[in-house]
Every structure is written in C-alpha cells, then in structure tokens.
C-alpha cells in the first residue's frame, strides 16, 4: 500500500493518473447535485417553525462541514509533507486552501442569510459564528503566508506549521454549541442520533457528498497545474509542452 502511495505521489505519475480520475469525480458531483436540488426543494418538507427558509440548510450545513474537512486535510497533508518529505502532500495542501476558504465564506454568508429571519440579525458574535470566522482568517493567513515566500520549500514548511497549529480551532468550532451558550442550534446529526425528518437528512447527505466530489475534482485539477509549475524544468514536463505545441 505504501509503495502504491509513493508511486502515485510521484509528480509524473500523479499528473498522468489524475487526468483519468477527474471525470469519475465530476460525473457523481453533477448527478448528486441535481438529485440533491430536487430533494431539497421538492421532496423535503418545510420546517414547522422555520417554514421554507430552512431550505438554506441544504447549502449552509454541507458548506460548513466542508470548511472543517478541508482544513483537516490541509493540516494532515502539511504534516505528511513535513515528516515524509512528499512533494505532492504540500501541493494538495496548497491548492486546497482557496477551495476551503470559498466553502467557509459560503457557510458564513448562507448562515447570515439564514440567521436574519431566525435571530433577527445578520450577525452575532456567537461562539460558533466567531470560530468559523476565525477559520476563514486561518485560510487567508495560510494563503498569504505561502505566497510570501519565493522558495516553494520554505513556503510549504511555514504554511504547514501554521495549518497544524491552526487545527486547534477545528474542535472549538465543532463543540462550541456545547461548551458555551449559543444562539446557534445544536447538531441534528450525530453518531447515534438523527434529529430531523428522513427526507431532510437525505437531501443534506446528497448535497454533502456532491460537495466532496466537487472538492476532489477541483483539487486534482489545481494540483495538476501546480505540478507543472513546480516541475517545469523536468524532462517529462518539457515533453508534454512540446507535445501540446505540435
């Protein structure tokens, strides 16, 4: 297994293999998105208290989940890059950051839109909201720090350390509604409980998995470009450039 990972992590092998994987991620994303939208707006019922405004949950919650998931990926990839010196791990971390920042911003915006009719305000310095905003700042800090260095190796190491240190915010976000008094409602989905109607749960899962497939496809597409930039002086990259130019 480790040998296969090392072989796939080779920039050349990754570039060639990832091209074949991307369509297998985009097709499920499109299919799940269409089904998820139908389930969210047609099949899923309105909430007995919130009415149709609850439907923003089907974007807000999966986006919030993705914001946490992607940051964990960045921290783990950064750690792998630091310990085992795997170039592709640093590349995955770097290209994931803008995607994670976009999902975090989407979670904050949809949360504000959802919060206005529920709380009577667009924003409150609630523990969950504030820690999610800090997550966005961590993403932006990671991106800025990486761009601050001309040497990719130095940038990879510095930003990986920042990502690992910043990962302490992840459990704070997750448990904030339990640790502090919060306007934000508690989790409706847990390991042993699902506190919502089954049609709502299905819609939520469909969109959530669609976002994960989208993330996978975007990471591979961005990583392929980053590999070409970093390996531009390699023979195999020059052969690709020559082949494209013919």
TrEMBL record:
Annotated compartments: Cell inner membrane; Membrane
Residue ranges annotated for the Cytochrome c assembly protein domain, each copy included: 27-184
Lineage: superkingdom: Bacteria
Any one GO molecular-function label of the UniProt entry: heme transmembrane transporter activity
InterPro entries from the UniProt entry: Cyt_c_assembly, Cyt_c_biogenesis_CcmC, Cyt_c_biogenesis_CcsA/CcmC
Record's bilayer topology term: Multi-pass membrane protein
GO cellular component: plasma membrane
BP-aspect Gene Ontology terms: cytochrome complex assembly
Keyword terms, alphabetized: Cell inner membrane, Cell membrane, Cytochrome c-type biogenesis, Membrane, Transmembrane, Transmembrane helix, Transport
Transmembrane segments: 21-43, 63-84, 91-113, 133-149, 161-180, 200-220
Keyword NADP on entry: no
Coiled coil: none
Protein family membership: Belongs to the CcmC/CycZ/HelC family.
UniProt function note: Required for the export of heme to the periplasm for the biogenesis of c-type cytochromes.
NCBIfam families for this protein: ccmC
Name recorded for this polypeptide: Heme exporter protein C
Species, as recorded: Bathymodiolus azoricus thioautotrophic gill symbiont
Gene name of the encoded protein: ccmC
């Amino acid at each position: 297994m480790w040998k296969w990972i090392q072989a796939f992590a080779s920039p050349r092998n990754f570039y060639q293999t990832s091209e074949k994987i991307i369509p297998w991620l985009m097709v499920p994303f499109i299919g799940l998105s269409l089904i998820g939208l139908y389930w969210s707006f047609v099949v899923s019922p309105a909430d007995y208290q919130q009415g149709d405004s609850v439907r923003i949950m089907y974007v807000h919650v999966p986006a919030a989940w993705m914001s946490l998931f992607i940051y964990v990926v960045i921290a783990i990839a950064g750690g792998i890059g630091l310990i085992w010196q795997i170039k592709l791990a640093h590349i995955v971390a770097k290209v994931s950051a803008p995607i994670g920042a976009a999902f975090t911003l989407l979670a904050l915006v949809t949360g504000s839109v959802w919060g206005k009719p529920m709380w009577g305000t667009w924003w409150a310095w609630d523990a969950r909201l504030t820690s999610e905003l800090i997550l966005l700042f961590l993403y932006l800090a990671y991106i800025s720090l990486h761009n601050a260095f001309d040497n990719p190796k130095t940038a990879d190491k510095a930003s990986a350390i920042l990502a690992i240190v910043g990962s302490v915010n992840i459990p704070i976000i997750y448990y904030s509604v339990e640790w502090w008094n919060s306007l934000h409602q508690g989790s409706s989905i847990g390991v042993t409980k699902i506190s919502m109607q089954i049609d709502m749960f299905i819609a939520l899962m469909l969109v959530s998995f669609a976002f994960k497939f989208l993330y996978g496809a975007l990471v591979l597409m961005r990583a392929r470009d980053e590999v070409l930039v970093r390996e531009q002086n390699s023979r195999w990259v020059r052969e690709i450039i020559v082949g494209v130019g013919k």
